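Blinded run. Sample ID left blank on purpose so nobody reads anything into the name before looking at the predicted structure. Input follows.
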Amino acid sequence: MATAHPSKETANTSKTVKEPFLSDVRMLRKQARAHLSEGVMTPAYGADVDKTIEILQSVLATEIVCVLRYTMHAVSATGISSEAVKKEFAEHAREEQEHMMKVAERINQLGGTPNFNPEGLASRSASEYVEGDNLVDMIRENLVAERIAVEHYRELIKYFGDKDPTTRVMLEGILGNEEEHANDMHDLLIAHEGTPNLPKH
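Blinded prediction complete.
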């Protein structure tokens, strides 16, 4: 019985089948050189850059307000066990400042100018600046602010999805930190008040 051999046509076809590849390297090189003025922005960017910058300006304002609020509380908190709480506030203020810088740098990467102008800051921010009348009030207001930030950032992470993975990953990192802050404030509120009685927002 004769052994079957693949035809020339079949052999040639198997040789010409290309492995799947994301992009032609030469085309990538050409595009990179042709759009130098756009900086980090490439043709593959899937989001509306102006809308992204607008959203990040709001995130930036939210982080600035958090820095200011935690700093104010770290300086002015008084009462029993206030020193330990003040240290917690100060640590959170430092971490919120790190968030602020990350967001500002991302806005700059996208071709925008980070808005640090105090005028209109409160209206741009998702959270509020509330000083609080006493230590428990301060803890409560920070917990409320963190809960707002957590929900806001979760929504933004869904919005950016695969359209802007760089911004999404940045926000995911910030969200994880904000969730830790919320847990810290929740624990402090229970320690100082018992069951938390949160105001509506």
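Unblinding after everyone has recorded impressions. The chain has a mean pLDDT of 84.
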